């Protein structure tokens, strides 16, 4: 219950009531929110995104820092700003600035896999969109990805997979994380599938080389390098590591962090299909 309370934190200033059809000028300060707003059909209402948003998503819109100043933000004349709690911690002036201007602020933290439907309902309500339709779309997408993966697998063994989240200390994605659950959804077997109680609330966990080697010697098919702000390692970097020498036959691939770990409908579809292509390549793409 505590997790859900943290997940759906509504900070709303309604001095200026939102119209019945929903907010018409939205600023999104987290990429996951932006992608879900677009997926829910409200992308034309966005007037600015965060600097962390993908370059290809609504490229003509301005990109804002988490510490965006009040003057720059108010100049966009938004009627709703959607952020996450990290943004509010980085920019403590944001909430009082918006409150003084009578602009609604919605704070939603990135959801865990099992909380995604709750998150979609909260976001849909803020947009005056159909929450049941959004949740149904997510369910259909999960089923479609699982079915496609099973069809593409065609009786082949499920691949044993390791996800490198950060090179330093060799951190991996915790079994409850979005990335690990996506790997499982499309038929992968995560070799780092155990975690301690102290790690349950964290999306990443320290794994270490010795632990990796112990599990990998039992079988490893695919080594995924999650590339992003926390990990700049390349496929070549991984292959050059001395402790990877025994695993020369393992497929090492790089996947962009936003595809693997960003909770969004767009990320779910694109990331799921990317993993399916990695796990079960079509015959024409085999060497």
TrEMBL record:
Protein's name in the database: Fe/B12 periplasmic-binding domain-containing protein
Key words, A-Z: Signal
Domain Fe/B12 periplasmic-binding: 25-283
Keyword Nucleus: no
InterPro entries according to UniProt: ABC_Transporter_SBP, ABC_transptr_periplasmic_BD
Species assigned in the record: Aminithiophilus ramosus
An example Gene Ontology biological process: cellular response to iron ion
Highest taxon of the lineage: Bacteria
SUPFAM superfamilies the UniProt entry points to: Helical backbone' metal receptor
Signal peptide start-end: 1-20
